[in-house]
Amino acid sequence: MKMERQAMKGKDLNLRLQLIATVLVLCLCYTCEVAEGKSQRTTKKTYIVHMDMSKMAATYEDHLQWYDSSLKSVSESADMLYTYSSIIHGFSTRLTQEEAELLEKQSGILSVLPEMIYKLHTTHSPEFLGLGSSDFVVPASASSSEVIVGVLDTGVWPEIKSFDDTGLGPVPSTWKGTCEAGKNFNSSSCNRKLIGAQYFSKGYEAAFGPIDETMESKSPRDDDGHGTHTATTAAGSVVSGASLFGYAFGTARGMAPQARVAAYKVCWLGGCFSSDILAGMEKAVADGVNVISMSIGGGISDYNRDTVAIGAFRAVAQGILVSCSAGNSGPSPGSLTNVAPWITTVGAGTLDRDFPAYVSLGNGKNYSGISLYSGKPLSDSLVPLVYAGNVSNSTSGNLCMTGTLVPSQVAGKIVICDRGSNSRVQKGLVVKDSGALGMILANTELYGEELVADAHVLPTSTVGQRAADAIKNYAFTDPKPTATIASGGTKLGVEPSPVLAAFSSRGPNLVTPEVLKPDLIAPGVNILAGWTGAAGPSGLTRDTRHVSFNIISGTSMSCPHVSGLAALIKGAHQDWSAAAIKSALMTTAYATYKNGENILDVATGQPSTPFDFGAGHVNPMAALDPGLVYDASVDDYLSFFCALNYTAADIKQITNEDFTCDSSKKYSLGDLNYPSFSVPLETASGKGGGAGVTSTVKYTRTLTNVGAPATYKLSMTSKTQSVKISVEPESLSFAKENEKKSYTVTFTATSMPSGTSSFAHLEWSDGKHVVGSPIAFSWT
């Protein structure tokens, strides 16, 4: 009994100790959670503070004094990073979450937005677009060299020939900007081509600390290459004999070679910070640019919470076209960024040019891939072939990540690496460091048949999924698989072209489904343009090769194509608004090949849709003379905001105008004067019942004549029987230039299952001009 009692006491003691331990753990967890929550609220972050100038008290001598007083009321230690006076009225600063919340409650504060970190959407294209043909002539006008393209990116490398100012006249008198000196950059680095260069780093440095000038230049100098590439794509000077290691040899030129370039460095090693971007946009507007090109993007949010959308609106309101990349998150649906209707959102397509690299196998089979390798080639002799997943010390060895390959098993061989996770060129470096002779980079199902060329550091061929599967099957089944790789140089006349890039981000527009995005596509795959002297063509830190031109891909490359073409149109039509230029580019774009089939999607091998390419592929020759345009003013966008049920405060955050929606007026998103149509419709399970139920939607548009007097007649093609389309009137007669005529489209739709989509196309033509608009239907 005594022993039993002792055992019971022992059990009691153990239970008590377990209970105490559990309580201590729970208390510790609670304490950690509280501490973590407290830490989050006391950690300082950058915020952009938007002020309502109409609420500034008369007691303040100026707005800066008001800003300082407002800031000091919540934080004695905080300083302003930037003050903004045109894009928005306000400032950026470092605050705790608690301080930011207190500040936002004050009178006169429109919004306090947390800093967003955006990322980069990382010769022959003028000919492909028809700009190099002998019969193409830009309308004679000295104003073509008066147009200024502002590029917000990683800066510029001013010494390359693409910024040569030979033949250009004086800097435009409208220019008010500067050439800012800094690390490795002098005020004399600018000229009559590169007329301005500035950098904006306060937001970046507030988050990461002072810039390490051994790693990057605290100046407008481009240490990355991305900014130089985008700037020269948009408006680089004509350079003969341009190439990357002999690939794409020919004459390189920007889309608007007579236009001037102003560079605003807002992107750094740690990303592109919204406070810096906003400061760059504000300076670009004040400096007098005509086009803003931004190959950057982040997430999506309501327009009054989107820093880039707000900045772009203020620029567009002053007649400046803002072109942005759609993003590189395709082929996933709804992966777009930069979806505001006043932004020109650009997806990516291919050129008719390729850089083949051939794979020959020991079984006699041959496959074609792509590469920009330029070093010592492999011999014609076949060498052993291995799959990375079988010669690795890691479960993810197939991806050729750093340190995952076993050198003794890959030395002297060609290694098959699957695409994904780390960069394509990084895989090549890993393979080379392991002693291998070459690499076959294999597309998986995610990448399909998309082939993107890279300046690899060893003999490489990137192959599509079908070829990759065949090569891997050979490597798995043959007892002694062998292969070799050979370069095929540059191949022109590739068909079909263009095709939609798999990486190009897709619609529908998740913020406003009634606005079709992207707006259009332009060349964005394997584009040759200027490059920095600070980085090799692969972008790897160990790549010591120096080039003046590089070939890279992304919607980052398609965006400046459209920016430069917008500058070209602006030079020919100085009085056109940003919306008119955008309309000209969209309504003249093409979406089909000569055989009538839609542009193919390389991700699927099937025809793409307006959710992928918007209005289609840009056609600059036609865009210079569109006949009619869909123009839009600030008033149009105010009605758009009312249709979104925005409050007066919401509207002021974007427009800086005091405007209250008319409660007696019915506003419709379908009435925004947009060059394309997106029509969300009710599903079979939506309002009003089941299948077979019909709904009617009306959209109104207004066309402005920018050509000679003419009568335009309607034509309509549709791929759905579920929507009946009627247009009133079906003929529009214009007696003079700038005359406006409106029409209404009525869509009568039958309910369909959720996720269904279909498409139609509306055109107005006078026999010479074709003014086209895609129509996208989606049942949600």
UniProtKB/TrEMBL annotation:
Mind listing the GO molecular function terms for this protein?
Answer: serine-type endopeptidase activity
The primary location reported for this protein is secreted
A Pfam family of the record is PA
What sequence ranges are listed for the domain PA?
A: 384-471
Q: Which Gene Ontology BP terms does the record give?
A: proteolysis; response to symbiotic bacterium; response to symbiotic fungus; system development
**Which keywords annotate this record?**
Apoplast, Glycoprotein, Hydrolase, Protease, Secreted, Serine protease, Signal, Zymogen
- Membrane-spanning residues: none
The record ties this protein, via Gene3D superfamilies, to:
2.60.40.2310, 3.50.30.30, Peptidase S8 propeptide/proteinase inhibitor I9 (3.30.70.80), Peptidase S8/S53 domain (3.40.50.200)
All copies of the Peptidase S8/S53 domain together span: 145-614
What function does the entry list? Answer: Required for arbuscular mycorrhiza (AM) development during AM symbiosis with AM fungi (e.g. Glomeromycota intraradices).
Name of this protein: SUBTILISIN-LIKE PROTEASE SBT1.7
Q: Which organism is it from?
A: Salix koriyanagi
